[in-house]
Design brief:
about 500 residues; four-stranded antiparallel beta sheet; about 30% helix
């Protein structure tokens, strides 16, 4: 008897886990967090994935952050305001770094200079090229002067990849630098676990609530689920979609999920069949997205037919959100207009390392064959897939992403081809108009004018340039023991910022 991968997973997810061992003996004052991987590095400013983000959000704090409801709030800055249209002023609270030294404007200035430096690997390096100068009129005031108006500066500084680090504290022996977060890095077992201990000098009275947090890596998703079910850990990230039903049914557990991350297609715009935007658009109209939701995410998601802006936010446009409704005849016409009425053969890059990537690729392959595009799957391991994408050694590819904030300026990370090469974006697709519009939106303080600008951005991305084709939202969940309090999954695109709430987490 042959069973598909999906059927086997569903069968496994439905099994009662009565044979699992009883809950492990807890250590008072210690919370154990199950990571999806061991962080590849502990550097403060590069983007090194969700597991690394969780560690950053324990040992560091930035000027701003988000609360559990997704509202921006002050962290090392207790308040901030625009000073005209080309400057922002941040007023620092009384806070100290882990070595006891005060957090000052000079530390903020040094941090921003490191991020913007020529050889910086910081995620936000491109953004901070817009800074003209940084002034520190006194120890607790920072004035950031920009080359042009930038309304989104607070959002940049709320990103978890923008922590403030003590001046000159980063070294080969201390790649994290000295932070000002709720916890101090205590120990690590490379490839296995990290342990942090509460910092008694943290600037928020009564926090953190838990003395010690131990983060243990469970790269195997089945072992990660077994660990939370057995009580070996108190919280896990990246709950596998096939296990969500069983976790929801377990009286010892609870789960918080958010629709924020998504899957999309990216393209090689320099060579191969996808240099023509009409061909790129044709793929968008040929895919029945609900089948991706069911196959890759076991129904835990939603079709994504427009740019990944969250419903209910000021910039969401209902009509544009339905742009890529399934329309195979329109797809075939676009191929004919592009001179390939009978389709063509190509290779679709994905990976077999993550089931959601492989399953998404299989659905896309099947649907594109129906309009004449014969896609052979390339499924290398994840590091190879990233390397191929960065070098442009592919024709089109599956990618999983999320926006780096709630403002549509964050779309630039996904669709602005004028920025430096990144695996999150298509390769070699020039987007001068999108780049120009994003700059205009970033400089506009009038909300109605910004809405108009981002409507144009969406139309350019969906109808003209097609730098990406959205496929499906996916549910991103954390599971935890029923008696864990204070930890929350942040809403929408902020789900990967959720580690910020670990300062409030406590058992019982």
């Amino acid at each position: 008897m042959h069973m598909s991968r999906r059927a086997l997973l569903m069968a496994g997810a439905a099994l009662p886990f009565l044979s699992l061992p009883a809950r492990a003996q807890r250590v008072p004052g210690t919370l154990i967090f199950g990571l999806s991987s061991y962080p590849p590095n502990f550097q403060p400013w590069p983007n090194a994935g969700t597991a690394a983000a969780t560690v950053k959000l324990l040992v560091h704090r930035g000027l701003l952050s988000y609360d559990a409801q997704g509202n921006m709030r002050g962290e090392l800055a207790e308040r901030w305001e625009a000073d005209g249209t080309t400057a922002w002023v941040f007023h620092l609270r009384e806070a100290v770094f882990h070595d006891g030294s005060p957090v000052t404007g000079e530390d903020v200035k040094w941090t921003l200079e490191q991020v913007a430096a020529e050889r910086s690997a910081a995620l936000m390096r491109s953004e901070f090229q817009s800074v003209e100068r940084i002034e520190t009129p006194d120890a607790r005031t920072v004035r950031i002067v920009t080359k042009q108006p930038i309304v989104t500066m607070p959002m940049w500084l709320a990103n978890y990849n923008m922590p403030i680090v003590k001046k000159d504290s980063i070294s080969d022996d201390l790649p994290t630098g000295v932070g000002a977060g709720p916890y101090v890095l205590k120990s690590q077992e490379r490839g296995t676990s990290v342990e942090v201990e509460a910092f008694p000098g943290y600037y928020k009275p009564g926090l953190p609530k838990t003395k010690t947090i131990k983060l243990v890596a469970y790269p195997d998703e089945n072992l990660r689920v077994a660990a939370i079910q057995a009580g070996d850990v108190d919280i896990i990230e990246y709950v596998p979609w096939q296990a969500m039903q069983a976790i929801e049914a377990d009286p010892k557990l609870k789960m918080e999920a958010a629709l924020g991350p998504f899957m999309s297609l990216v393209f090689n715009g320099k060579s191969g069949p996808f240099t023509d935007p009409r061909v790129r658009a044709a793929t968008g109209f040929a895919i029945r997205r609900e089948e991706i939701v069911q196959s890759a995410f076991f129904g835990r998601g939603a079709p994504l037919q427009g740019m990944p802006l969250q419903p209910g936010t000021p910039f969401f446009d209902e009509k544009l959100s339905q742009h890529y409704s399934y329309d195979p005849e329109r797809a075939k016409k676009l191929l004919a207009d592009a001179g390939v009425p009978n389709g063509f053969s190509c290779t679709l890059l994905s990976t077999a390392q993550y089931g959601m990537y492989k399953s998404t690729a299989e659905v896309v392959q099947q649907h594109l064959a129906e309009i004449g595009i014969q896609a052979m799957l390339s499924l290398p391991d994840w590091p190879t897939r990233i390397s191929l994408a960065n070098k442009g050694q592919y024709e089109f590819a599956i990618i999983g992403n999320t926006m780096e904030g709630t403002d549509p300026d964050a779309l630039g990370y996904l669709i602005d081809g004028e920025l430096s090469i990144a695996p999150a974006r298509s390769y070699g697709i020039p987007t001068p108009k999108i780049h120009e519009l994003l700059a205009a939106g970033r400089a506009e303080f009038d909300m109605e004018k910004r809405k108009s600008i981002y409507e144009q951005v969406q139309k350019q991305a969906l109808e003209e340039v097609v730098p990406m084709v959205p496929l499906a939202w996916r549910s991103q969940a954390y599971a935890m023991a029923k008696d864990v309090q204070g930890f929350h999954n942040l809403p929408g695109s902020l789900t990967f910022f959720s580690g910020i709430t670990l300062e409030e987490a406590v058992i019982g």
